[in-house]
Amino acid sequence: MTNDITYRTRWADMDPNGHMRHSAYADFAADQRVVLLAQWGFDVKRFAQLRLGPILFREETKYLKEVNIGEEIRVDGHLASASEDGSRWTIVHTIFKADGRVAATVTVDGAWLDLDRRKLTVPPAELAEAFKSMPVYEAPSK
């Protein structure tokens, strides 16, 4: 099962300066998370059945290299941390240019929301275990 996804940037991803707009980085990272969850068996339909949803507390993007229209980018996600019960987690997404250079990193802190009670909750054991199988983030050495 792959952890990274390749995309081609579109006109809609661009800003008036001719490079990828700030929110497009977050959109690509979110899509990579959704695809990964579906690969683990937790697609939108399954979350609806469980009455469970992922939520974010924080999202931070570091921009390192310009991305232009029509460029191929690759997005991955690595687990930076997770609570023992899987209820809270941090994922670092790296967005790579086609030549392998890092264009940006998107770091998100999240948790699971019980959609009926509107309160944070512990995910099913198989979801918590799936998260633990995600590659672990290692900060680049300086």
Automatic annotation (TrEMBL):
Pfam family, one: 4HBT_2
GO molecular function, one term: fatty acyl-CoA hydrolase activity
Domain of life (superkingdom): Bacteria
Family annotation (SUPFAM superfamilies): Thioesterase/thiol ester dehydrase-isomerase
CDD domains to which the protein is assigned, alphabetical: 4HBT
Full protein name: Thioesterase family protein
Organism: Hymenobacter properus
Classification lineage: Bacteria, Pseudomonadati, Bacteroidota, Cytophagia, Cytophagales
